[in-house]
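Researcher: I'd like a structural prediction for the single chain below. Treat it as a standalone chain; there are no partners to consider.
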Amino acid sequence: MEIAADRVVLIHYTLKDDTGTVIDSSSGGEPLAYIQGHGNLIPGLERALEGKAEGHELNVTVSPEDGYGKRDAALVQSVPRRALQGAGDIKKGMQFQARTDEGMRLFTVTAVVGDMVTLDGNHPLADQTLHFDVRIVGVREASGEELEHGHVHGPGGHHH
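Model: Treating it as a single chain, here is the predicted structure.
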């Protein structure tokens, strides 16, 4: 069965940056399960997988525009520490969710200087070209419940 919209796909993958450093991998664990065409993967990878079948192996290079986007300086802001009340001892690397005009966004603390905290709403992989080694290990029709919920159920997916 080929990968097409509304089908559940299971893949093993290794993600590397331009230097060949491994950023993430499913090796040694469960395959990643997603529903094709539902925005569960970055657009460049999802497009590259379309039409492929179980057993297919491929190498995919994804530009920032088709991955996590270009870095947006407007998503970096400094706020007073008091704006993050209840967060405890704020340190570089901490992450916070905040509601924005575009919905919920994850912000990472990139600096703490005195009473000011710098938050970055860019994805950590923004501006990076991504290199995926992918092996497709399964393709099947999604159930009605999976389509309704927007995610895969069972092995490799969500458990209710």
